[in-house]
Amino acid sequence: SGWPAAALVGRKAPFPYWAPEDVERNTRALEVMLQGGASADAVEVAVLRPDGSRFDSQMHSSPLVDASGQQIGWMTSMTDVTEQRRVRLELAAAHERFKTVLESLDAAVSVVAPERGELLFANRSYRERFGASAAGHQRLQAGLRQRDSGELFDAASERWFDVRTRTIQWPDESRAGQADDTSGARLQIASDITLRKAAEEMARQQQEKVHFTARLTTLGEMASSLAHELNQPLAAITNYSEGTLAR
């Protein structure tokens, strides 16, 4: 931490390397430790340097015993974890941003451990459509019939979905499977395409009407042409008959 021994030896709490905002908390923790209640777990605290700058440290405290086994004090080790803490905070922030993006998607995103049928993750759209269980995920998977993607109709919700799936390695091995499990977890993205299907059906019906109208028009043209072709010989026959009668 940069503090010389002369600045620390013989000093009592609060120590000069304590951050001002942590004095009260550190004092309570020191009292607990002196009473024999020191925790075996590491504690993260902010540490001041002589120049006023600070860093994050991880502190371990344990009893200091002599050769006869008698405790003669306490021993504390301090490790600079500023960089590790920065990386951890950045990862946590990135995770929150990614989770926010997933929550805002209209597509239903879900992850299920296939062996146990456990829902590992579900975004807002999935929860709203299928609830908090893996039933909806498994129902759509069954509808795909061993395919990785496809469009299908879900009778339970009466909606059409464009479903895309793939196998991923889930970070929590204890939930998704053992470390040597090659099956991993199943990621599924289901986009509601009910409106698109309705529009396609409407367009198909309109197209059928257009084709029907076109066929009627063609039939009318053929009837008109046929009537014209028949009218000429019939007229000639009529004129010939009338002429014959006149003579």
Tell me about this structure.
- This protein is an alpha+beta fold and about 250 residues long.
- Helix content is about 45%, strand content about 25%.
- The chain has helices spanning about 25-35, 80-105, 125-130, 135-145, 175, 195-245, and strands at about 45-50, 55-65, 70-80, 110-115, 120, 150-155, 160-170, 185-190.
- The strands form 2 sheets. The chain has a 5-stranded antiparallel β-sheet with strand order 5-4-8-7-6, with helices on both faces. The chain has a 3-stranded antiparallel β-sheet with strand order 1-2-3, covered by helices on one side.
- The longest helix has about 55 residues, at about 195-245.
- The chain is rod-shaped, with a radius of gyration of 41 Å.
Q: Averaged pLDDT, please?
A: 86
How far apart are the first and last residues' alpha carbons, in Å?
Answer: 139 Å
Shape: rod-shaped
How many DSSP E strands?
8
Number of helices: 6
- The proportion of strand residues reads 25-35%
SSE pattern = HEEEHEEHHEEHEH
Give, in spatial order, the strands making up the sheet with the most strands.
5-4-8-7-6
What is the makeup of the main sheet?
A: 5 strands, antiparallel
| Helix/strand structural class | alpha+beta
Helix content percent band? 40-55%
**Sequence stretches where pLDDT stays below 50 over 5 or more residues:** 175-182
Radius of gyration: 41 Å
